[in-house]
Write a structure and sequence with these properties.
Elements lengths: L1 H5 L1 E3 L1 H4 L4 E8 L2 H15 L3 E8 L10 H19 L2 E4 L11 H14 L3 E5 L6 H18 L15 E5 L12 E4 L4 H8 L3 H4 L7 H16 L4 E5 L14
Parallel strand pairs: 1-7, 2-3, 2-5, 3-4, 5-6
Antiparallel strand pairs: 6-8, 7-8
Length: 248
């Protein structure tokens, strides 16, 4: 079956302990809603989890001034991270203005050097939201810069990054193909508790049914993976290369 050939189900035995997961999102709430169940799972298994929000997403509430809503979203992000068992960091950018630039890549690179993650989760590279695609590019470029001796920054080079995983987001669907499925059957309640810290996810700001969509998506991906609930990720094409002396 094609599903079995392509799906690699990651569970606690594959993840192991002593890992550091860095989730980098364009706006506060992006990584929690799309990958929060996986973050909760890693925290439960004893791994360090860090969430970096490049912007607060402060322009997402038409009923509130950006400064006021940004302060609210910062509080919500801190509360959500606490539920997940994660640390939280905030970037310097404004909602809608995350740049596709050398400066953004260097900022991400220094965060990677500081946090020293084994794994990074971020947006898929193709998106209808410019902030999402800019964030993905900053992560890809920043991961390289973080490893180079010639790049002078606050922290020394870091070369321990094992992989970059692209989360599934309703705004980032172009070309996204589920490749890795993570069993989150035991972590959905913690995910729900975390994401409802955000008002926009509770449904009083946006007409998009975030909670219903991602809850249903976890059922679909779970069915594909043969589990109750799962979260799917895409990876870079080069990471799919396998060399073997016989068919696996």
């Amino acid at each position: 079956m094609r599903q079995i050939a392509l799906a690699v189900l990651l569970c606690c035995s594959a993840f192991g302990a002593n890992r550091t997961i860095l989730a980098i999102g364009a706006h506060a709430g992006d990584m929690e809603i799309s990958a929060g169940a996986v973050l909760a799972r890693h925290a439960r298994l004893g791994d360090r989890v860090v969430i970096l929000h490049l912007s607060l997403g402060e322009r997402g509430n038409p009923k509130m001034p950006p400064d006021e809503y940004g302060a609210q979203k910062r509080r919500e992000a801190v509360a959500a991270a606490k539920v997940l068992g994660a640390e939280v960091l905030f970037g310097p950018y404004k909602d809608g203005e995350v740049p596709r630039s050398e400066e953004a890549a260097r900022f991400v690179a220094d965060v990677i050097r500081s946090v020293m993650p084994t794994d990074v989760i971020t947006h898929w590279v193709n998106s209808i939201h410019r902030d999402h695609s800019a964030t993905a590019q900053a992560v890809l470029d920043g991961a390289l810069l973080a490893s180079l001796d010639g790049i002078v920054a606050e922290h020394p080079p870091f070369r321990g990054l094992r992989g970059i995983f692209f989360a599934e987001n309703w705004e980032d669907k172009e070309g996204f193909q589920p490749y890795i499925y993570v069993d989150v059957s035991e972590d959905l309640n913690k995910w729900r508790e975390a994401v409802i810290q955000y008002e926009f996810i509770r449904g009083s700001i946006s007409s998009f049914a975030y909670l219903d969509y991602y809850d249903a998506l976890s059922r679909v991906r779970g069915a594909e993976a043969g589990k109750s609930r799962a979260v799917a990720f895409e990876i870079e094409a080069l990471g799919k290369k396998r060399v073997a002396d016989r068919l696996p």
